[in-house]
Every structure is written in structure tokens, then in C-alpha cells.
Amino acid sequence: MANKNNDEYSADQITVLEGLEPVRKRPGMYIGSTGIDGLHHLVWEIVDNGIDEALAGYADHVSVTMQSDGGIKVTDNGRGIPTDIHPKTGKSTVETVLTVLHAGGKFGDGGYKVSGGLHGVGSSVVNALSNKLIVTIYRDGKIHQQEYAKGAPKGDLKVIGKTTKDHTGTDITFYPDDTIFQSVVFSYDTILDRLRHAAYLTKGVRTSLEDEVTGKRYSFYFEGGIQSYVKHLNVGKEVVDDDIFYVDKMVKDTQVEISLQYSDAYTETIKTFANNVLNPEGGTHLTGFRSALTRVVNDYARKSGLLKEKEENLSGEDTREGMTCIILVKLPDPQFEGQTKSKLGNPEIRGYVEQVMNEYFNYYLEEHPAVARKIVGKALLAARARKAARAARDSILRKGVLEGASMPGKLADCSSKDPKSSELYLVEGDSAGGSAKSGRDSKTQAILPLRGKVLNVERARLDRMLGNNEIVSLIKAMGVGIQDSFDINGLRYDRIIIMTDADVDGSHISTLLMTFFFRYMKEVIDGGHVYLAKPPLFELVKPGRKSSIFIYDESELNRVLDATIAKRKADGSVVNIEDDRVKQAGFIEMKRYKGLGEMDAEQLFETTMNPEKRVLVQVKVDDAEKADSIFNKLMGSEVEPRKNFIQANAKFVKDLDI
């Protein structure tokens, strides 16, 4: 059970820096956006406060309840926010924390030695951006409560009951302001993923989630901490060895925790955290880790004779191929870039992480020679593939936006030289490619037909990829290069549109292309440049006319038929109930399209390529970890995870070609 010593946490430890006024005027400065990400950021701020109590050793459970009235309740069993009068504000410490920007236990001495919150704005920002917030504190045998509206207290902090001395903690229930946020509907899965990560990163701490509307609830507890996290990320992959490297060491006032394992994958997965906060752009801890890893693997390869004297050293990229790694540092004064904490900047952390990796990963390789030889062997294969790919890559990359290497012969380019107004259609097959070329707007629309199914890059290194004509044609046409020569500024088209048949083969080709973009050109996806064209599934043909209605999915078909039948009945038109629904609605026939080649050039343009009428679905990666897992399951070498996925999702399939 967590140690709860209230004497160590009092009003004197809360430091006030400045006021709260800017938050409601510029919420994006504090939570990133007023969209769905910003909405959930409110939850993360309060959850992180509970995790900070756990990191300090005063809590072992943080829970979130999605209430039926739309509110979010976050509970921790820590010490409870201090309730006495703050010496500088003259208000209760609770009110100070919730109404004054930069007021918290993360600045002075004794509040928190380690904290995920550098800025101390979390609770006050959540309060400012909520229509209503209720704080309930269990502390010193009493239950205290106070209510706020848009950041302002509706009354003083009051004692509303008694509790036992050992029952301590904080409940915060808040209702986001619907005049600020685009939506105030929370995602169960998004919150669940965040709580899973928090449990992985804080071993011995339980996190839980309940949805009062659906009755769903889930709880996480991982005794293994980040070792369990690495194991989770490698589910479905063929690992080099079941053993997972793990080290947890203190260097001065900083805790360095690292866990890693290699698999048969060709890409690396490294996640970096400082005080449990994800740093997607890495920082000094990642720099120190990479430097030490490259050095240790090369030293071992030389000493063991696996790397010959005349051979050049393995590159950092070689040593990280197939690696899954979690780096977690806990330090007293983290210096992040921005409130979203995307990158760690403390310069001393590089040396601390390097020191730990140099010493303990070297010990690991010496003590696990069989595993070490597999790791070095994989890196040597990666090095050979890298060298083989270099010449091929250099020969195909474009040197500029429109000049340089020749374009693929089958590319029907657009005449516009402005990437912002240009788009590239990746079309399945020569037949559909021909229709697309004939029907397109040649000024802004380029067509690249792809013959057959492109290479599954989940099972291929770059050297093999560059031997595949379809992949090479795609790289040439896009103009951004690949891997270390990748440059998003070279992108020749603002939209890359995948246009395939509405059948199983078409879906497979789309998945293969999205796998390529996710693994090798993720910046193109992150920039919002990749789209899926949605060709019509049905055509409803009107009698005596050339015009038709094109329908894009079954639900739309049912809505159109129901509405048309109802209108005909209301108008007094004859509806024969013995006819099928298509004829009841006054159509002579319904065509079901499965291939783009079934439409002529004019139909294809009007239904799928005309910017005024077409339906495009933008490809986004909201959760890279989940996307990585799905691509690995669907496209990786292990059959069992794919079989399990198909069995679990088969009940959701509506149309299946036979």
C-alpha cells in the first residue's frame, strides 16, 4: 500500500507564479487545440496529477469514470490536495491550485520530487475550460468539497462529511465548456489506451475506467512495468529471443529505466518518456540511448569476431532494425519543449542514459552470448541490405520538384507545376487506369496505374523494395525520396489518392499501399496528403432518362430507397408492394459495381474523380501504436495473430466476394 504522510505535503509547498486570465481566451496555447485531442487533454492533465501522486509513493490507484451526464470523474487515493489557507493568496490551497495558473506542488521543495507536469497549469486550465467542476478531497478525517463554474468558485471550500484517517485522496469531476470545444463527447477507447500506458509506466499502480452509459469497465495493473509494455508491443512478432533486456538504475537524482527486445521486423519501435509523459519527438534521453547502443553493439561485434577488422562499423540504423524499446527517465526538473511536452531538453540526461546503457547492455550481451550473436547477425544483415539499397536508391530519386530523373513511363502527369493544386491517383490495373486517364482533368490530376498487387513492405527490406517496379514508380512519381534521403518538401502532389475496386482484392491493394506509406513515408500521412477514393457501389437507373443516382454504401442505399418510396406514397404514386424495393421507388434497375473498369471514363470522373461530387476519405494515424499493431497483424509474417483477427472480426463483414 502506498505511503501517505500528510505532514510532507502542506500549503507552504504550493508556489504561485501568475494568474489564470489567458486560458479561456487562448485555450490552444495550453491544450494544443479545441478539437477532440484538446478535449481529451483535459482528462490527461487530471489523470497525470494522480499519477504524480503515485510516482511520489502516495497513491496506488487512479480511476476515470465517464458519467452518464457527460462529466468526467478522475479519482486518486493519494494524499488529497491541501485544504489549509495558502500564505500568499489568502485562499484555500485547493482554490489556489484550481484558479491560479502555475500554482502547484511542482515548483517548490517537498511537493513532488518527480512530476510529469513542468508547468503546473493542468488543474487550473481544466477548471477554466469547464462549465462546471467539482473537487472533493478526503484528508485529515474530513471530506471537503467546492464547486466552480468556468474557473470561478461558486462558494467557499466546505466540509461536507467525515471519513477515516486512512481514507485520503482527490476526486475531480468536470464538464467541458461546449462553447469552447468542437465536441464534448469523450472516447472510451482513447481514454482506455492512455490508462493502459500509465499502468505500464508506473509498475505496481492500478488504473481503471468505467463508462456509466454502456456499463463497460476495465482495469490495468502491470507488475513488470515497461517490460510488460515491450512484450505487449511485440505481440504477433517473431522475437529474436524471449528474454527482454531491462535495467533500472539511479544516476544522481535521475532514475533511468530501459527495456528492449528484438524481433524479425524491419522497422524500429522506440518510445521515450520523461516522468511518464510521452515525448514523441524524443530528446536527450533518446540521443544518449542511440549513441550507447551503436557503440556497445559494434564493440561486441568486434570483440566476438562477428565484425571483421576491415569491415566498416554498423550504423545506428543497422543496430536498431527490428528493435522494440521503451526508455523512461524520472527526473526532478524536466525541461520540455512546450506544454505538450513533445521533446525532452535536459542536456545532462543524455550522459546519464549513455552511462547506464554502456554499462548494463554490455553486461547483457556478455551474459547472453546466444542472444547477442542473433542481435549482431540481424544488424549485419541490415547493413548488407542498406549497402545493396544505396546504389539502387540513388539511381531513382528525383533531384528537385519537377527536374532530374525521368518520370515513370506509365505516369500520365498533370500539366500544373503547382503541387498545391495537383493530385496523384494510384489506380488499380491498366483497364481502370485507361478510363481514369481518359476521364480526368489533365490540368490537375495525374494518373499512375499499378499492375497487380504491390510488394508487401512489412516483409521486405528496402533493397528488395527497390527491385519492385511498382514501388520504384511510386517513389519516382511522388518526388520525396525514401529513408535517409526522404524530404517532404519534394512532394509533387498535395493529394495522393488510392483508387481501387470495391472488392476484396481492391481492399488488399489499398492496405498494401497504406502499409508502404505508414512504414516508409509516414510524414506524407501525417501531413494529410493520403486519401482513399470511394467509388460508388450502386447505380439506381431512372426510367426514360439517362441520369442515374450513384450510391456509395448500403446504408445510403436504404435511406434513398426508403425516402423515395415514402415520397411516392405521399404523392399518390402507385407503389406495388409485390415489387422489390428498387421498383417500388420508381427505378427500372439497380447496378452493383465491383470494379472501376465497369464504368466508362465519364462515369468514373463524375462519381469518383470530380472534386465537386467525389467522396474521399483522408487517411489519418490517431494512434501510431495501434496502427503499428494492426499492420503487423495483417501484413506481418506470423499467421496466428492474423487468423485470430479475422475470426474476431468476421461477424462485422457484410459483403464478401465469393
Structural features:
658 residues, alpha+beta, Heat Shock Protein 90, Ribosomal Protein S5, domain 2, Rossmann fold, 3 domains, 9-stranded mixed β-sheet, 36% helix, 19% strand, flat
Helix content: 25-40%
Largest sheet: 9 strands, mixed
**CATH fold naming of the largest domain:** Heat Shock Protein 90
Shape: flat
Protein architecture, described:
36% of the residues lie in helices and 19% in strands. The chain has 21 helices and 24 strands. Strand 17 (423-428), helix 12 (430-439) and strand 18 (445-450) form a beta-alpha-beta unit. It is flat and about 85 Å long. The protein starts with 14 loop residues before the first strand and ends in a 9-residue tail after the last helix. 41% of the residues are buried. Residues 106-110 and 397-405 have low confidence and may be disordered.
